[in-house]
Amino acid sequence: MDSDDIVVAMALAAQAGGASALRIEGAARVRQVVAQVSIPVVGIVKRDLADSAVRITPLLDDVDALCAAGAAVVAVDATQRLRPVPVAALLKRIKQGHCLAMADCSCLADGLLARDMGFDWVGSTLSGYTADTLCADNSPPDWALIRQLSQQGCWVVAEGRLRTPAHAAQALREGARAVTVGSAITRVEHITSWFVQALSPPVPDAGA
Q1: Where are the domains of the chain?
Q2: Residues in contact with 200: Cβ distance below 8 Å, sequence separation at least 6, in sequence order
Q3: How many C-beta atoms lie closer than 10 Å to residue 56's C-beta?
Q4: Where are the alpha helices (DSSP H) in 2-107?
Q5: pLDDT in tens, 143-166
Q6: CA distances from 179 to 19, 47, 157 (A)
Q7: Range list of β-strands (E), the chain
Q8: 144 neighbors 127 (Cβ within 8 angstroms)
Q9: What are residue 112's phi and psi, to 5 degrees?
Q10: CATH architecture of the region 4-199
């Protein structure tokens, strides 16, 4: 599934289904998707760095490339971890590129700091995916974080382990202004595995 043509086709299908925005990885793919759709694109770049656990848009060059590619919003990791570039510097560069800025956060402290710095959107994206918040992949979305961020006046994007329409509706009830759905739409291998697991017979109790 990791090819430009498939990503563009998925973007068009999501738009046809009623999506109001798209989150796309990679500047080159952002450029291709922007050329084909009429809805805003949230752009990110993922990198595996040797000296930092930060993966989402960690470098100033990444921000520049996404802005130049036509992203309406640039999302960055806004966690308080060791990183190659300070969050404030990334935010400044996003604004210089005339894009909206989204902070991918892992906890309430991340989100409040991002809000105070001037990020337009605050996402629950990284809750469950950092050393301090790690949880099982089948854990429910972090409803408490979504609710707390909203109550503190953040423009919240609920993201992370939202897999069903019921999850999306619950996120809005918790105060989110938008919902990002990733694997439940785009990762066919994940979707298939959920069905396989649900249909697999239970393992007999060894003591029975």
Answers
A1: 4-199
A2: none
A3: 21
A4: 4-16, 27-34, 60-69, 87-96
A5: 999 999 999 999 999 999 999 999
A6: 10, 24, 5
A7: 22-25, 41-44, 73-77, 100-104, 121-123, 156-159, 178-180
A8: no
A9: -65, -40
A10: Alpha-Beta Barrel (3.20)
